[in-house]
């Protein structure tokens, strides 16, 4: 990828982060930490990787995305809005009575959302179903899904982990947002899913470990997944929870709490400074 | 009278309609028991075993349905409605996806396997989920027609089938099946029995017995538990003044509850519910268990006489 394109993507991701924080702040409710940690990945997927068209969100040949960690809807809605699926101006209605921007992704109400999610462990199974449908219909679309690292504690994830290699779903690329924190604290202390890479390898996945905030490394991992035949790929992304906002970074307290007015202003100020810096570059 | 288990009819229907409809069938290692192996043999490329993993099966079904497939996900009622409740609720019904749940081995007539495998709560559980349609066919023909109706219906359907061979009541040439419609199968004016599943032939036998005693008892076959046919219930209440429900399910939450809700809000009349009375099942021969738990023509007839005293 050219440096200028990486800068463009970083700019979009900064705006996605701002939108996600605006959503959570406006609702006084939501999940900023994990939304910020996947903002770079979602930007890359929706602006560089996936074959999608905001004007034709139900096209049967499109690539699909399932946010298995559905509580990070602010990041998904923000990237969809920035990509043109619906107006960015609607973001502040998030979680408000009557809004189509439900607290967790709702495929029936939000343009561009391919699967309703929010109950952890289920998204990756739905992604399996979509990948299987692609195989049955001999279509060449790809399916992407993002799991939380805490989400790996759900038993259903491992049912899916067995299933995808069994049916050789090489059209499925899954990601683990490995930020190391869940609501109750450090994942290793709450209920360790470690080592994540060896677990998925032993289940028959092609596993890649990479940096969630390095666009080039992420893109290279995604391309490697596309080239991998006969098995699904799991990309374990080492990420920073709360990435991009100094006081939210690596702090489990920001898993599911909204910033107050002062904190929101500070976060926007930091992201605006980042945007200004990127524009200069 | 010839007998066939409704699960056998489920397998036959999948194999038959697999010819004309683009259906995909999932099973969780029970295909020989749920009879989806009948479909598997004919259409191996559209059959997928998920292994013993009902949660994954239900949400995988949701993913397939989101890509336009008509999906049948099959397991025992206990695991389809019980184990995978939340996947059915959040993964299938909330997004209103086109998944049909083929739940076999419902009720106490599972027999020897005992309480862990005798699901007597599934109708109650499934009935509370928005968008869900619940079909509990009584015999072979009705089961086949229910599968076809489920295929044609856009959205989630819970189909409830049994393990035990039950009498074949209906004629495929003449029987019309419609989701949401009860069917009056015996006329009567003194009381009405509303039955579902394998209790339908018991209800018919009870009505015949009571006729011999000078009582005119209407019998309604209620294969659709949700959406319940309000009109036929209210009409029966107004015309006969007393209702007995009969189901192979806990009296809490199932057909009896659904009918009671309609009566209470629209046309209150005395009623009695025949079903398992908030108890778990146990191991035994199906016929002996049905007798032990009062799921018989004799008990239905007794309850009709009881309800008539309340008129």
Summary, kept brief:
The complex is a heterodimer of chains A (281) and B (311). Chain A is built from nine helices and seven strands.
Structure description:
The complex is a heterodimer of chains A (281) and B (311). Chain A is of the alpha/beta class. Chain A has nine helices and seven strands, in the order ααβααβαβββααβαβα. In chain A, strands 1-2-3-7-6 form a five-stranded parallel sheet, with helices on both faces. Chain A has a two-stranded antiparallel sheet with strand order 4-5. Chain A is globular. Chain B folds into two domains: 165 residues, Rossmann fold (3-Layer(aba) Sandwich); 127 residues, 3-Layer(aba) Sandwich (Rossmann fold). Helix content of chain B is 41%, strand content 21%. In chain B, α9 links the parallel β10 and β11. Chain B is globular and about 60 Å long. Classes of the chains: A alpha/beta (281), B alpha/beta (311). Chains A and B meet through α4 and α5 of A and α4 and α6 of B.
Question: What tags apply to this protein structure?
Answer:
heterodimer; A: 281 residues; alpha/beta; Rossmann fold; two-stranded antiparallel ribbon; 9 helices; 7 strands; 44% helix; globular; B: 311 residues; 2 domains; 7-stranded mixed β-sheet; 5-stranded mixed β-sheet; 13 helices; 41% helix
Annotated CATH topology of chain A: Rossmann fold
Radius of gyration of chain B: 18 Å
Helical region count of chain B?
Answer: 13
Poorly predicted runs of chain B are none
Q: Specify the CATH architecture of the largest domain in chain B.
A: 3-Layer(aba) Sandwich
Identify the quaternary structure here.
heterodimer
Order of helices and strands of chain A: HHEHHEHEEEHHEHEH
Order of helices and strands of chain B: EHEHHEHEHHEHEHEEEEHEEHEHEHH
Instruction: State the major sheet of chain B.
Output: 7 strands, mixed
CATH superfamily of the largest domain in chain B: Thiamin diphosphate (ThDP)-binding fold, Pyr/PP domains
The total beta strand count of chain B reads 14
Q: Which percent range describes the beta-strand content of chain A?
A: 5-15%
Structural class of chain B: alpha/beta
C-alpha-based Rg of chain A, rounded: 17 Å
Which architecture of chain A does the CATH hierarchy give at level 2? 3-Layer(aba) Sandwich
Structural class call of chain A reads alpha/beta
Helix content bin of chain B: 40-55%
**CATH homologous superfamily name of chain A?**
Thiamin diphosphate (ThDP)-binding fold, Pyr/PP domains
């Amino acid at each position: 990828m050219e440096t200028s394109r990486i800068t463009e993507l970083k700019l979009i991701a900064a705006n996605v982060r701002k939108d996600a924080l605006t959503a959570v702040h406006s609702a006084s409710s939501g999940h900023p930490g994990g939304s910020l940690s996947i903002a770079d990945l979602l930007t890359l997927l929706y602006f560089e990787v996936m074959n999608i068209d905001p004007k034709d969100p139900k096209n049967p040949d499109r690539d699909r995305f399932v946010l298995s960690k559905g509580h990070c809807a602010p990041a998904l809605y923000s990237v969809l809005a920035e990509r043109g699926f619906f107006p960015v101006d609607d973001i502040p209605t998030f979680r408000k009575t009557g809004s189509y921007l439900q607290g967790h992704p709702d495929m029936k109400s939000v343009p561009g959302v391919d699967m309703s999610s929010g109950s952890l462990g289920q998204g990756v199974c739905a992604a399996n179903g979509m990948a299987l449908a692609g195989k049955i219909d001999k279509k060449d679309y790809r399916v992407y899904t993002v799991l939380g690292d805490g989400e790996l504690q759900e038993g259903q994830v491992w049912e899916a982990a067995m299933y995808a290699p069994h049916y050789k779903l090489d059209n499925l690329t899954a990601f683990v947002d490995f930020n190391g924190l869940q609501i109750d604290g450090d994942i290793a202390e709450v209920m360790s899913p470690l080592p994540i890479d060896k677990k998925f390898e032993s289940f028959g996945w092609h596993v890649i470990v990479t940096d969630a905030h390095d666009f080039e490394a992420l893109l290279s991992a995604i391309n490697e997944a596309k080239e991998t035949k006969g098995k699904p790929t799991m990309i374990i992304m080492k990420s920073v929870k709360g990435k991009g906002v100094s006081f939210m970074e690596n702090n489990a307290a920001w898993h599911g709490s909204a910033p107050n007015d002062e904190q929101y202003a500070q976060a926007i100020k930091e992201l605006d400074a980042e945007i200004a810096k990127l524009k200069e570059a | 009278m010839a007998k066939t288990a409704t699960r056998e009819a489920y397998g036959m229907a999948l194999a038959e309609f697999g010819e004309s409809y683009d259906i995909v069938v999932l099973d969780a290692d029970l295909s020989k028991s749920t009879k989806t192996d009948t479909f598997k043999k004919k259409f191996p490329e559209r059959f997928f075993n998920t292994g013993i993993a009902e949660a994954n099966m239900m949400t995988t079904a949701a993913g397939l349905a989101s890509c336009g497939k008509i999906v049948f996900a099959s397991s025992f009622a206990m695991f389809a409605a019980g184990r995978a409740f939340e996947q059915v609720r959040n993964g299938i019904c909330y997004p209103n996806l086109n998944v049909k749940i083929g739940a076999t081995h419902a009720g106490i007539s599972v027999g020897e396997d005992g309480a862990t495998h005798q699901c007597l709560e599934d109708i109650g559980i499934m009935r509370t989920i928005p968008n869900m349609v619940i079909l509990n066919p009584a015999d072979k023909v009705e089961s086949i027609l229910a599968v076809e109706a489920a295929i044609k219906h856009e959205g989630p359907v819970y189909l409830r089938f049994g393990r035990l061979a039950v009498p074949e009541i209906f004629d495929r040439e003449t029987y019309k099946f419609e989701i949401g419609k009860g069917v009056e199968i015996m006329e009567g004016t003194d009381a009405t029995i509303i039955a579902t599943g394998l209790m339908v032939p018991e209800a018919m036998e009870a009505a015949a017995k009571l006729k011999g005693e000078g009582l005119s008892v209407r019998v309604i076959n209620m294969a659709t538990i949700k959406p319940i046919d309000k009109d036929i219930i209210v009409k029966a209440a107004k015309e006969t003044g007393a209702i007995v429900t009969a189901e192979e399910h806990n009296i809490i939450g199932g057909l009896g509850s659904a009918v009671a809700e309609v009566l209470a809000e629209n046309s209150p009349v005395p009623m009695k519910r025949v079903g398992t009375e908030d108890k778990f099942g146990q191991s035994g021969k199906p016929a002996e268990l049905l007798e032990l738990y009062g799921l018989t023509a004799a008990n239905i007839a007794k309850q009709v006489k009881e309800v008539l005293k309340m008129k």
